[in-house]
Amino acid sequence: MNFFFRTNFNEKIGLGHLFRCLRLIRYFETQGHSCYLFTDLLKKRFHFLKNFNVIPIYKKKVHFFDQKKGVIQFTKATKNFKKGIVVIDDYRIGVDWEKRISRYHKKVAVIDDLNKKHYLDYIINYNPSFDLTGNFNYKNVLKKNCKILLGHKFSILEKKKKRKKSNNFNVIMYNGSSGDLIFFEKIIKFFLLKQEKLHKKNVIFKVVIGPFSKNKERILNFSKKNKQIIPILNCYDLNEILFDANLFVGSAGVSSFETAFNKLPSILFQVNDNQKVQSKYMEKIGHFIILKLKDLYTYEKISQLILLAKVQYKRFLYLSKNQKFLIDSKGTKRILENIIKKNITQRIDNKANKKLIENQYIRKVNDKDINHYLYSRNLKLNRDHSVTLEKIIPIDHYIWWFTTKRISHVLIKNNKRILYLYDDKIFSDKTYDYLDHVLLV
Predict the structure, then answer these.
(1) Using one digit for the tens of pLDDT, what is the confidence trace for 28-45?
(2) How far apart are CA 255 and CA 264, in angstroms?
């Protein structure tokens, strides 16, 4: 079967879409299929495209993507091949393009992070929030009998290397293939400047420099002056460098799944819209420390959080291993089976369990409560009874959480967290005698 992959990459969008396609291509070709990769423009031959059939569609840079013209160019580029299956991984392509291209090829599939409207035969979306299929907007599926492949079981990963112990505390820093590295430079400088010699002695910062990274020279120059900074060049698969890592600090894109696959403690930043997944769903794949783009500017606080990860590593490791949804490398196989064969499971049907189990008890708060505790604290009814009326931002909460000696408890009712209690105050399920020591949920 011919597979035609339509994607794009450049300084602005990075390599995420491209590398998902390359991983699928590598697996599909081992199964005897012919794969071709179509991009906008290829100014130069990149090393990571060396063993792939890459066909540029345009002769000059596309400033505005027109759906109709885009289809014409794509059909021209594929007209000399036998009809096959088109796989789209490009946010610019919409319903009009999909409808038109369906007339020329057997089937059309899309890898979608955003739950957009689509008219095609297969939708692949491995966002962990869609493991609970009730969260998916099925009204956006416009074509009848479309197969919908949802959830972590369809994550596009390759086999990982065997974990290796190191005498150092290795911190991998990655801001995508086109992100700005100046953030990492400043975070590292604060860490080396502020932290005690005892704790910073064996910390090694491995900074991944992508082909489109900004301020890469600053990291290269910094590494020449300090042996604790190691620049990583020509790395196009994080699995190649995660095998001896202790902590990951970086963007929450595809790397969220790669680090979850390796059960690696992580401090993640949601820098793009497609990375904005609620913490309660990220927790299901072992990610509990989730920050926003603006938090990247709090260099000193992030350096402090990195230190806490080192000092209290067992707690961070416990969270990364606490996965309800286990990530594996079989997603590519599951995707191909669903496209080629009939009657394969379309999705992992994990609808929210609405059956209530009647129970009520109090337990000690643990690290898995870290984000729910913050959510509860920031509710208006709790802020109104607090010394601080403003919402607490996540970075401040995380630092407090791993430094506080407070002992807190939580009331569980019907398997839901109802309220938090602290300072060993007495709690009655009928009256809240110590409201200043209670967080309502």
Answers:
(1) 999 999 999 999 987 677
(2) 11
- Cβ contact 219:185 at 8 Å: yes
Placement of tokens 């005892």 in the chain: 198
The values of phi and psi at residue 129, to 5°, are -70, -20
User: What is the distance between the alpha carbons of residues 380 and 402, in angstroms, rounded to a whole number?
Assistant: 24
Strands (E), 293-374: 360-364
Burial grade of 243 (CB within 10 A; 0-12, 13-18, 19 or more): middle
Query: In this predicted model, what pLDDT tens digit does every residue of 392-411 receive, in sequence order?
Result: 999 999 999 999 998 899 99
Distances (CA, A) of 168 to 193, 199, 223: 19, 11, 17
Paired tokens of 143: 């074509």
Q: Is the pTM of this model over 0.70?
A: yes
| Whether domain 2-158 has CATH 3.40.50.970 | no
**35-41 CB contacts, 8 Å cutoff, 24+ apart:** 35/2, 35/3, 35/5, 36/2, 36/3, 36/4, 36/5, 36/78, 36/81, 37/5, 37/7, 38/4, 38/5, 38/6, 38/7, 38/74, 38/77, 38/78, 39/7, 39/8, 39/9, 40/8, 40/10
Return the CATH fold of 169-321. Rossmann fold (3.40.50)
Q: How far apart are CA 373 and CA 354, in angstroms?
A: 23
